[in-house]
């Protein structure tokens, strides 16, 4: 079955359906995966926000059965547009809270209404666009909305139990046969809206007065699409105030088209106030007859849309004649005929004595000025081919309040400004979706003073448009133009409340200096990189802001703005935080502004300098303190010496080791220091198996002390001198003599180890001891530390100086020599 155009008022008449339709439309465009994530979030959200509403949308998910994993709290379930072929009581049994069930566009052939007997709350059931042939009737709940339209029923699916549905507001039916008796069970109900879809079937039997007993305010009858209109069906339901008829094909033989008879029948009905015809294929002459019938009826409003015209052009002028019509709407007309005398059409329309006229989607090129003062209040000429000459210098549209010229061929804004000059009552003007521009040099600015709402969106206007705006305008829509800057010197628009400048190239938020009353600003999709921060201060009246999707530059300057945005409530900035992302720098691209944090330090130069200086000072102070506290220089010196000795040891030539040596070291000291040598030095060296030569211990009788010492030196790999003031005074001269004699200071320098046991003041060294002085100055001595903690390092250093690694070689040479 063909899909029919669903009338607007039908969609909006039942709120749950409308709400979920919008939600669904948003969701369906995303991928399946996303839908699931969204739903999870959405379910959680709704659960938190409102216990009484729990919406689940599983439409278009390829389901073949009602899903089993539904929350027991589900109140609205949308499983439309799937492949579900049956519904059983176990499917919905547990959903005791279910109020709205949308099952449209599935493959259900049979319905047993008793499956819902446990769903006490269910009041909205949509089973439209399935393949239902039969429903089995049972006493049922109090439904408010029941939709069985666009199914495969033969007879009307009206059970006698429907007679108890006293709350029923909407009933959607479909059938190929109509019988007066089948409507009987619901004749006493007062239903707001009935949709009746007549199926394509060649054997259709329709009793002409089948619908007479229907009791509804609004009736919408959808006729079969495939055939010429051949019904003699009286659609003039006595209670109906609004009537809509869809799918009317009267092309071949005008006099065999019963449709005009159907309309003539309607003409007499005093209650009928509005008639809408949809999807019509007919000739010019039939169209003219249809409009004329409406014109001479008692109706208030007549609409006709989606019209396809054939045959010869013919149009009569009836616009002058009296009518009770207040509103006429003609939308979406396509004609096969090209030679149309449009002037008669313009004249007819412009001279109509009605309040509302819509002529839209008709490729109309022009519209003339009414010849007398016109009662028009509302004119909608959108989606035509009108040019700037429309209503040029027209002084008869003085009552006109609303004019829409959107989607036409308008070019110069100056012409339109001039056009409004004579429209003394004009409050709303829509000239969006044209090619309007406003040149710099224009100096006419004669907007109708009465204008309150002006829609100039989707044109090619630039900054200059702000030089001429209606002085009292409250709502100004300029989105999708070429504005780069809102000049500061614009004439102040004291009344402006809503400004939409989205999709332009603005670089900053406007202040509210010139727009004192501004309460809603839409400025998303522009080029704002670092918005001014005083925006919220200057715009005290602001109730709603949308400024997302701009290329924000996430630097220090943005922090204030982010802080402001975070502070104002969500109701004010209604696209925060999701539409606000960093665009620059590259490292932050895509991050939500909400999550962009930069330390106060890196944004404040003074603070930065102060911090660096403080840090350096603190560091220096701590280093100094540590040096002092732990005697760091001493450690450094010791470690330096240690590494030097190790390096030197590696370079010791082999032949040197093969000298005839017996000892690792010879120790010389003053008798005053012998306690230290015996208790500290010797045990520590001999612990490491070092052979030590002491001149008193290894004394060779018969030799002088000096000779003994010299023997000791010659048999030892190293010579350790324990230096102290005592030593200088008593012992040094022995060695000075020896060294001077053997000229050993240079050759044997490596073999000397000086241990400074106690500090030796410079002055206490006799003048003649040059060598000692220079050795001391070169600091090539190991200093005995008084602190116990440093002793380990001292011994390690000393052992390294003696070079314990050579022990084996020394031993070997000892062995061979003995
Ligand atoms: C005329 O149009 C206005 C604005 O759309 C609307 O509010 C009013 O109901 C219409 N009048 C009739 C009789 O349809
Ligand atoms: C202006 O017209 C556009 C479409 O042409 C529409 O989307 C927009 O909502 C209108 N603005 C106002 C404020 O009505």
TrEMBL record:
Residue intervals of the TIR domain: 661-802
Membrane-related topology note: Single-pass type I membrane protein
Transmembrane segments: 607-630
Subcellular location: Cytoplasmic vesicle, Phagosome membrane; Membrane raft
Highest taxon listed in the record's lineage: Eukaryota
Covalent S-S links between cysteines: 445-468
InterPro entries, per database record: Cys-rich_flank_reg_C, Leu-rich_rpt, Leu-rich_rpt_typical-subtyp, LRR_dom_sf, TIR_dom, Toll-like_receptor, Toll_tir_struct_dom_sf
GO cellular component: Golgi apparatus; membrane raft; phagocytic vesicle membrane; Toll-like receptor 1-Toll-like receptor 2 protein complex
Keywords: Disulfide bond, Glycoprotein, Immunity, Inflammatory response, Innate immunity, Leucine-rich repeat, Membrane, NAD, Receptor, Repeat, Signal, Transmembrane, Transmembrane helix
Gene Ontology MF annotations: identical protein binding; lipopeptide binding; Toll-like receptor 2 binding; transmembrane signaling receptor activity
Predominant place of localization: membrane
Family: Belongs to the Toll-like receptor family.
Record protein name field: Toll-like receptor 1
UniProt source species: Cavia porcellus
Name of the gene: TLR1
């Amino acid at each position: 079955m063909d899909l029919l155009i669903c009338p607007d008022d039908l969609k909006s008449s039942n709120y749950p359906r409308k709400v979920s339709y919008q939600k669904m439309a948003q969701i369906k465009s995303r991928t399946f995966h996303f839908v699931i994530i969204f739903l999870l979030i959405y379910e959680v959200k709704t659960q938190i926000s409102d216990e009484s509403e729990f919406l689940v949308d599983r439409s278009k998910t390829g389901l073949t059965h009602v899903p089993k994993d539904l929350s027991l709290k589900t109140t609205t379930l949308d499983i439309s547009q799937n492949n579900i072929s049956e519904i059983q009581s176990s499917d919905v049994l547990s959903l005791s809270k279910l109020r709205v069930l949308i099952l449209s566009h599935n493959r259900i052939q049979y319905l047993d209404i008793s499956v819902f007997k446990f769903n006490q709350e269910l009041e909205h059931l949509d089973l439209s666009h399935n393949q239902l042939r039969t429903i089995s009737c049972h006493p049922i709940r109090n439904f408010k909305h029941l939709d069985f339209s666009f199914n495969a029923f033969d007879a009307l699916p009206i059970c006698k139990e429907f007679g108890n549905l006293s709350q029923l507001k909407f009933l959607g039916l479909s059938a190929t046969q109509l019988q007066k008796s089948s409507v009987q069970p619901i004749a006493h109900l007062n239903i707001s809206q009935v949709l009746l879809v007549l199926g394509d079937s060649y054997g259709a039997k329709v009793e002409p007065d089948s619908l007479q007993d229907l009791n509804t305010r609004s009736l919408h009858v959808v006729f079969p699409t495939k055939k010429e209109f051949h019904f003699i069906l009286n659609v003039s339901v006595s209670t109906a105030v609004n009537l809509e008829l869809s799918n009317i094909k009267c092309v071949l033989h005008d006099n065999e088209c019963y449709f005009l008879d159907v309309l003539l029948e309607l003409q007499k009905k005093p209650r009928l106030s509005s008639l809408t015809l949809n999807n019509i294929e007919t000739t010019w002459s039939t169209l003219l007859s249809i409009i004329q019938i409406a014109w001479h009826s008692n109706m208030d409003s007549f609409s006709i849309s989606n019209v396809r015209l054939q045959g010869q052009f013919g149009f009569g002028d009836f616009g002058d004649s009296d009518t009770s019509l207040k509103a006429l709407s003609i939308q979406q007309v396509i004609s096969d005929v090209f030679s149309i005398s449009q002037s008669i059409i313009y004249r007819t329309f412009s001279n109509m004595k009605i309040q509302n006229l819509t002529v839209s989607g008709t490729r109309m090129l022009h519209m003339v000025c009414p010849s007398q003062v016109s009662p028009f209040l509302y004119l909608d000429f959108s989606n035509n081919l009108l040019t700037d000459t429309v209503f040029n210098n027209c002084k008869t549209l003085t009552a006109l309040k609303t004019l829409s010229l959107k989607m036409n061929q308008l070019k110069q804004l100056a012409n339109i400004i001039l056009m409004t000059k004579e429209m003394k009552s004009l409050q709303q003007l829509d000239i969006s979706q044209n090619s309007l521009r406003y040149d710099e040099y224009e100096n006419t600015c004669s907007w109708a003073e009465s204008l309150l709402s002006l829609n100039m969106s989707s044109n090619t206007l630039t900054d200059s448009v702000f030089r001429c705006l209606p002085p009292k305008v409250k709502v100004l829509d300029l989105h999708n133009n070429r504005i780069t800057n809102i000049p500061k010197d614009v004439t102040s628009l004291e009344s402006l409340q809503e400004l939409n400048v989205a999709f332009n190239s603005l670089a900053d938020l406007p202040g509210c200096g010139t727009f004192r009353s501004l309460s809603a600003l839409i400025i998303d999709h522009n080029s704002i990189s670092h918005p001014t921060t005083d925006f919220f201060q200057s715009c005290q009246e602001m109730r709603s802001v949308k400024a997302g999707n701009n290329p924000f530059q996430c630097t220090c300057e943005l922090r204030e703005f982010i802080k402001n945005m975070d502070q104002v409530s969500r109701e004010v900035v209604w696209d925060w935080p999701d539409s606000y992302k960093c665009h620059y720098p590259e490292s932050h691209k895509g991050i939500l502004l909400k999550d962009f944090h930069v330390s106060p330090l890196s944004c404040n130069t003074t603070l930065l300098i102060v911090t660096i200086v403080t840090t350096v000072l603190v560091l220096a102070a701590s280093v100094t303190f540590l040096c002092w506290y732990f005697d760091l220089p001493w450690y450094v010196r010791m470690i330096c010496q240690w590494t030097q000795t190790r390096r030197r040891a590696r370079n010791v030539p082999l032949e040197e080791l093969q000298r005839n040596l017996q000892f690792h070291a010879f120790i010389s000291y003053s008798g005053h220091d012998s306690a230290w040598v015996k208790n500290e030095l010797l045990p520590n060296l001999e612990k490491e198996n070092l052979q030590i030569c002491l001149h008193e211990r290894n004394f060779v009788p018969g030799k002088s002390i000096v000779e003994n010492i010299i023997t000791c030196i010659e048999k030892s790999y190293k010579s350790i001198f324990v230096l102290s003031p005592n030593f200088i005074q008593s012992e040094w001269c022995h060695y000075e003599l020896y060294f001077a004699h053997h000229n050993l200071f240079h050759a044997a320098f490596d073999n000397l180890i000086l241990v400074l046991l106690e500090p030796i003041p410079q002055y206490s060294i006799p003048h003649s001891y040059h060598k000692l002085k220079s050795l001391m100055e070169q600091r090539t001595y190991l200093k005995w530390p008084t602190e116990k903690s440093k002793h380990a390092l001292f011994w390690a250093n000393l052992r390294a100086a003696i070079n314990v690694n050579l022990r084996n070689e020394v031993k070997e040479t000892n062995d061979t020599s003995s």
